[in-house]
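Methods, example record. To illustrate the input and output format used throughout this study, we show the complete record for Type 11 methyltransferase. The sequence lines were provided to the predictor; the line carrying structure tokens was produced by it.
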Amino acid sequence: MSLLEDQYSDSKNFMARVELTRKFKTNPYSWILWIFDQIHFPNKARVLEIGCGNGLLWKANLNRIPEDTHIILSDFSEGMLSDARRVLNGDAERFEYQVLDAQEIPYPDNSLDILIANLMLYHIPDRKKALSEISRVLKCDGALYATTFGTGNMREISELVSAYDDQIHYSLEPLVGAFGLENGEKQLRKSFKEVKMIKYQDSLEVTEAGPLVDYILSFGKVNEALKGQKRKDFESYLTGIIEKEGRIKITKDNGIFIGTQPK
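The corresponding predicted structure is encoded as:
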């Protein structure tokens, strides 16, 4: 099963991940607003977001978008783009939508001011090619804004799953190993002369088992292993921990890379 079929045919799995953070974050200033704070919009900016998901970044920041900005929302999933159109329906004139492969961006050289890749570069099979494409389409004074997470992100979840059943494997290591806070700068410097990393401070204090289970099951292989009664048993297991400890504390380790002066 492909990544598209497994996790991103629509925004259901994506929203399970968003909802856990929304409900139980300890930082009152949300990640999605913080990302937008980092973005510098020049006059009449042309913006491309790759892997836009359901358009949540833009919905949450609609009143902050400069009026002269042209925004292209792209994803490799038509289902995701359909959800983005629905979420942003009342503001259709601001946005253009396109199914797009980040490894072959169909725009001319030096044609975009901003490119946004929010929690998605680790999914791209040929990341070197994608980053080369990104630097190609950006103007000489353009910028890439790429978010990701580090090795400590959500580490307690892996421990919880293993403690419940050591035959079930849950790990974000393949993603962070592909493009994480620890190794992203080295990859980006092959395509950008200047790279800066900024970290976002947050953690989770989870007081309900249901949203945590939904988050864990948004990853396909775990979903297969925790079907039916086993899901109910796992939720009861987590509920027991919460009743005993008062909450489940989870580490967050997120940040953004800003790449400028494309090569």
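Annotations derived from this record:
Confidence is low (pLDDT under 50) at residues 1-6.
The domain at 3-153+170-203+252-262 is CATH 3.40.50.150 (Rossmann fold).
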